[in-house]
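Q: What does the assembled structure look like for these inputs?
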Amino acid sequence: MNQIKKTVKLLRRSPYQALAAALAMSLTFFVSSIFIILIIGGQIVLNYIEQRPEVIVFFNDEANQTEIDDLTANVRSTGLTKEIKFVSKEEALAIYRERNKDDPLLLESVTADFLPRSIDISVNRAADIKQITDLTQASEHVDKVITPENLVEQLVKWTKTIRLGGLVFVSTLLSVSFLIIIMVIGMRIAIRREEVSIMSLVGATKWYIARPFFIEGALYGILGASISVLLIYVLLLFYSPQIQNFLGDIRVFPINPLFFLYLWAAEALAAALVGIIGAAIALYRYLKIR
Amino acid sequence: MLEFIAVSKQFPDGQVALDDINLKIEGSDFVFITGPSGAGKSTLLRLITKELVSTSGQVLFNEDDIAKIPENKLHILRRRIGTVFQDFKLLLSRTVFENVALSLEVLKKSDSEIEKEVSEALEKVGILEKADYFPAQLSGGEVQRTAIARAIVSKPEVLLADEPTGDLDPKTAEQVVELLEKINKEGTTILMATHNAAIVNKFKKRVVHLKKGKIEKDQKEGKYEPD
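A:
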């Protein structure tokens, strides 16, 4: 505790270097936080879609009710479905009207005859979607089959891209942070060269001399990570209505406060490690004790 | 306590600072190391703290070869030796108290122990009332007393003083050596490098005179007559 107090006192004596180092760390971990949230968010959306495996089968107008019922029975007999719901032309119109209630122009021109009959099939497992799709598409009475498979593929592709981009971007920023920490602590060592030499001559161990620099590196990291998480928290709080609006039925808000605590703990730990390793490199490079 | 056996020191540029030094110093001795500038006085002291390592020969401290002390054990040696530097080496941003406390901080003493022992050391050197002053606010003599307090606060077995009276007026210089004599009487071995003849001749201690890196004279109650 005493050492931390002493380190803080030293930081206050040259606040601009300390600020530069902490801000570099903040930027790195702020960007990291954004990528982490994008990846977690992408996963939530993916899970939401995968947990609602639905296939919508639209029939052409030539299909009669018996043929629709036969296909429905056929699908049910696979044992892969959870629920199958028939949607008549009238029900389709009701759904259409509900979705477009704010646009009278669209409502005026559409009648039940324009809309196809369909069955909504809930599948037990996402993996079974393909089998159901193949089965229904084979029927001559089916006009179109909509599945979430394409959407999932698209999302997985996006998530992978975000992960890769994030990795490259964060690695670059991390390297810059490392260099700034090495530079700032190297300057500190240069400023305190005389003190270091006196301490060595009065019997200080190398660890005793090096420890404040390690604490300093760790403090930059923890401070940077804290600023970053605070910023992310405020931004998410501020933009949560817009984000929720964009995501529609996928509920992500309110975010559990524990998430921010875990994010802070993980980032503070990672940032402290970056600071300590940076300090170690600076000490190895610049601290020559005789 | 301290023994130099055939010690020579040559710097990388070829300059010979010490040449075949044989010297034995017993516990509680007070020894003046005299000689003109460049005679090797400071080099001799720096071999004892292992700031420098001899080119040949051995420097023994309590029969341990100093050159063989590994880097990670060097602090143990240095805690047993106090040093007063020619240029004082006080930290200008720290008060007198904080400068002296540095020697105890590295020993990981508690705040209360540091408070007590620093106050005792400052009282011994006569500047307790200046504890909260910064070095820039002190006179030359007071700065040197601060440096001595820092060197003795951890109660070392040996005190090395490299030209401690160099920048002081004769009266203050005398007071500083009287202080060192007092510390010596309490049992600390003292090696003082100096070229101040008046001081050496007044205090009548053992004098080891160096010239061009060699011991020219070693007298029990010696005198120093500059060339």
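Chain A touches chain B at residues 2, 13, 194-195, 197-206, 208, 290 (CB under 8 Å).
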